[in-house]
């Protein structure tokens, strides 16, 4: 009798961090002349991605990348895999090696054209568009064998590539989307980037992920993120700029064909301060000590004041005011931050007790009187946990009184503690007086929040900023009024532009009372490579429009603009409920959106406090600053503002996620017919002119060749209506 030969020949395509799996041949039993009993071969289970880490070091314009991935084969038989790693078409790889379970394995570097043939070949054969997003990229390819039964396979990949700079900004992309597992999510993910620049490191920004950034002087920064059970939906992107100047300026642009462009302009001062360059400031700390601050809150507030006073520089001047039923000043006027004055101020803080009402108007009046004669940038840090109850309590009257008394043009930074605060009053106090507002919720620590604030404003660099770009027409630039620039911070401007090309940027301001001007040469490139910019700009503009309504009342023109932007960019607001649900399909969710609008407008009318009002203010403040990118898997721009845990269990988030689909630079809406509709689709204009394309047909791949960037949309594998150059294509169901 001849032996039975069992051939294991399951082919897989293993993508970075995960697996895009395709069975080319099934396990089978070779026939023999003698009757045999065929063994049961269980169906293949999806390969798991248990962990992935990427350690990246960028020195100058060269990035060195080390990737470690752990895969698990849950099947009772051996698997063979091919490891594909996509690279940007312009990447220059000078080192590439792979270590698979301790064995060095040779790989192959394929150019974009050859890689395209492999990507398309797999897609045609397997009827799976998952790899189409990588069409147009180079490819690193390596055979992975054996992947033993019920065992882990460890893969380590190292490579380096040269980065490109445009407009003075370097861009680094990590192909995180190629990590998408065959099924489920990645167990654990960690990414760490260390950037070292001998010429000075200025802007450091990720538009794709929320990262923790730690600066180590003017030449180095480390940033990263980590998580568990991650489904990688976006590539990781990092932008950074270099400059030897004390203040660096960098520009990133996105300009689709035949459209006005979008730009992000960053202004970043040096991190380190030379002792001889310390700029003086005058700051008055004003703390609410009313009875409602009793207990843990007053102790945290006292610790925050101690930190601020201890952190003053000898060149600074300061004041200290507490208020309850009436205000009490440490001194009648500003005093220098001498050792004796600091010691006396700390003793004053030690004696603070919580009792009495809330005299906000009187406290502000005294603070503005104290700041007169300021030496250096004048600032007031104002903290309260309540509504005005003593003296003048009318919001408009208080705002008018502050405007008339602020002859020094002091910057007013306000902190609302808890939910029982007037958010309209606090936000307008800050906005009308060139400062900023922040809120300390009951679960947060006052000491940490105020201390972090002071660390940011401790070192003024430029005040009264002005930015000019001669020869370039810009519009819809946010923020409208440029804030002061402090050492170690970063200012991000987002706006639209017409034209483009090489331009000179003039940045002027005041340093220690003296005017100063910086001139930078940069390029407003006419490129469509930074697809994150349009939505980032739209989110910020919508936040400003909503804030106008919240603080100044309803405005039909603003509401219409919010609806228009919300529809195009998939931004959920109190005025875009139709984007989430159809009333006939989910009436309870439609009702919640109507309730959200009523709630928002009620807050706009009376400016009252409460959890909802505070969280509205926080959401809009964060969106207006644009300081942080959205968390992985959580798109930016959901500005409807329900309080966390306050009725969110009705499924509004889930409904929005199920309806609005963000892919690259486009927004799609999932309709009842099962199709994803491009937000640019206009039924009146396109319905009778739809070009139907069958998946995996010659026309399908011809369209991909004509528009290589659409691979990311087609990779979704869903029937869709896609608008390209004013033509609507209907990618039908297979």
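^ Assign residues to that structure.
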């Amino acid at each position: 009798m001849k032996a039975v030969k069992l051939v294991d020949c399951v082919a897989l395509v293993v993508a970075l961090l995960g697996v895009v799996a395709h069975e080319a041949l099934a396990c089978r039993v070779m026939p023999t002349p003698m009757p045999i009993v065929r063994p049961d071969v269980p169906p293949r289970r999806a390969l798991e991605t248990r962990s992935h880490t990427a350690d990246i070091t960028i020195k100058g314009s060269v990035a060195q990348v080390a990737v470690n991935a752990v895969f698990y084969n849950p099947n009772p038989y051996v698997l063979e895999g091919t490891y594909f790693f996509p690279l940007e078409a312009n990447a220059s790889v000078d080192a590439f090696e792979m270590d698979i379970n301790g064995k060095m394995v040779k790989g192959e570097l394929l150019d974009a054209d050859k890689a395209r043939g492999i990507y398309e070949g797999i897609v045609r054969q397997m009827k799976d568009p998952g790899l189409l997003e990588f069409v147009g990229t180079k490819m690193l390819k390596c055979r992975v064998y054996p992947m033993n039964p019920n065992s882990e396979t460890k893969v380590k990949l190292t490579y380096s590539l040269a980065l490109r700079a445009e407009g003075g900004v370097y861009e680094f992309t990590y192909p995180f989307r190629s990590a998408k597992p065959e099924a489920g999510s990645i167990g654990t993910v960690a990414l760490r980037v260390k950037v070292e620049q001998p010429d000075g490191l200025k802007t450091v920004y990720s538009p794709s992920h929320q990262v923790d950034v730690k600066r180590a002087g003017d030449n180095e920064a480390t940033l990263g993120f980590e998580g568990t059970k991650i489904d990688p939906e976006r590539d990781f992107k990092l932008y950074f700029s270099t400059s030897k100047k004390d203040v660096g300026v960098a520009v990133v642009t996105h300009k689709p064909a035949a459209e006005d462009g979008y730009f992000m302009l960053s202004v970043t001062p040096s991190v380190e301060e030379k002792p001889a360059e310390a700029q003086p400031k005058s700051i008055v700390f004003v703390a609410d000590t009313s009875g409602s601050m009793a207990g843990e809150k007053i102790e945290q507030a006292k610790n925050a004041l101690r930190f601020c006073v201890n952190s003053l520089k000898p060149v600074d001047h300061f004041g200290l005011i507490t208020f309850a039923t009436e205000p009490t000043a440490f001194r009648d006027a500003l005093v220098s931050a001498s050792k004796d004055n600091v010691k006396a101020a700390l003793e004053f803080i030690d004696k603070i007790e919580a009792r009495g009402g809330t005299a906000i108007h009187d406290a502000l009046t005294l603070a503005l009187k104290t700041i007169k004669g300021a030496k250096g940038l004048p600032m007031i840090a104002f903290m309260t946990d309540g509504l005005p109850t003593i003296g003048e309590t009318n919001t408009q009257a208080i705002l008018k009184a502050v405007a008339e008394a602020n002859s020094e043009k002091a910057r007013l930074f306000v902190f609302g503690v808890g939910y029982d605060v007037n958010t309209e009053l606090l936000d307008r106090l800050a906005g009308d007086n060139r400062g900023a507002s922040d809120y300390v919720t009951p679960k947060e620590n006052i000491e940490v929040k105020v201390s972090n604030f002071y660390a940011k404003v401790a070192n003024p660099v430029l005040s009264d900023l002005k930015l000019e770009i001669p020869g370039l027409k810009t519009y819809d630039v946010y923020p409208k009024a440029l804030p002061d620039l402090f050492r170690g911070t970063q200012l991000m401007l987002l706006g639209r532009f017409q034209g483009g090309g090489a331009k000179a940027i003039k940045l002027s301001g005041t340093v220690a009372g003296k005017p100063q001007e910086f001139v930078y040469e940069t390029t407003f490139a006419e490129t469509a490579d930074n697809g994150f910019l349009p939505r980032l700009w739209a989110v910020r503009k919508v936040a400003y429009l909503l804030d106008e309504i919240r603080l100044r009342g309803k405005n039909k023109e603003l509401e219409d603009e919010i609806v228009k932007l919300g529809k195009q960019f998939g931004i959920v607001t109190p005025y875009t409920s139709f984007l989430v649900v159809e009333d006939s399909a989910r009436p309870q969710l439609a009702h919640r959106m109507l309730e959200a609008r009523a709630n928002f407008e009620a807050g706009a009318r009376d400016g009252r406090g409460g959890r909802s009002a505070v969280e509205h203010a926080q959401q809009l403040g964060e969106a207006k600053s644009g300081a942080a990118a959205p968390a992985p898997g959580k798109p930016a721009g959901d500005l409807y503002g329900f309080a966390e845990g306050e009725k969110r269990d009705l499924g509004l988030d889930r409904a929005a996620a199920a309806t609005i689909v963000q892919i690259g630079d486009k927004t799609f809406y999932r309709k009842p017919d099962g199709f994803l509709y491009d937000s640019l689709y206009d039924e009146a204009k396109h319905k009778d002119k739809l070009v139907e394309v069958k998946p995996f047909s010659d026309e399908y791949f011809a369209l991909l060749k004509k528009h290589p960037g659409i691979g990311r949309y087609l990779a979704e594998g869903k029937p869709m209506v896609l608008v390209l150059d004013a033509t609507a294509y209907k990618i039908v169901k297979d």
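Residues 1-38, 627-637, 641-650 have pLDDT under 50 and may be disordered.
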